[in-house]
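pls design
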């Protein structure tokens, strides 16, 4: 059974940091490109960052470039999103996605940036 489980979300003040994790199971993780998306209230889900496999090249949305870093650990079947210099506009539910022959999505983790 395929599972993607996000964790690490929470409430943080503007300027703070969070590290999201996404643990995968039920598929050959190393073959899949992994990405993070987010969805703010009343808005469409939007792309945040992606990391390939096996080359592990990375790409980022302009809105997070220089602040967020995506990484993966194939041995742990996990992908991470380090988020620094957080802004209120980063408030959203964050989802991880696995892409190869098809897409798999996690259930999401809430990130709230507020003072």
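designed seq:
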């Amino acid at each position: 059974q395929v599972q993607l489980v996000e964790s690490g979300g929470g409430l943080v003040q503007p300027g703070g940091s969070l590290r999201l994790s996404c643990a995968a199971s039920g598929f050959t993780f190393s073959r899949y490109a992994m990405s993070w998306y987010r969805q703010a209230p009343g808005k469409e889900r939007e792309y945040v960052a992606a990391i390939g496999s096996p080359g592990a090249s990375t790409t980022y949305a302009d809105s997070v470039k220089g602040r967020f870093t995506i990484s993966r650990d194939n041995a742990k079947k996990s992908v991470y999103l380090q988020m620094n210099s957080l802004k209120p506009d980063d408030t959203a539910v964050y989802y991880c996605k696995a892409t190869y022959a098809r897409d798999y999505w996690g259930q999401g983790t809430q990130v709230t940036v507020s003072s």
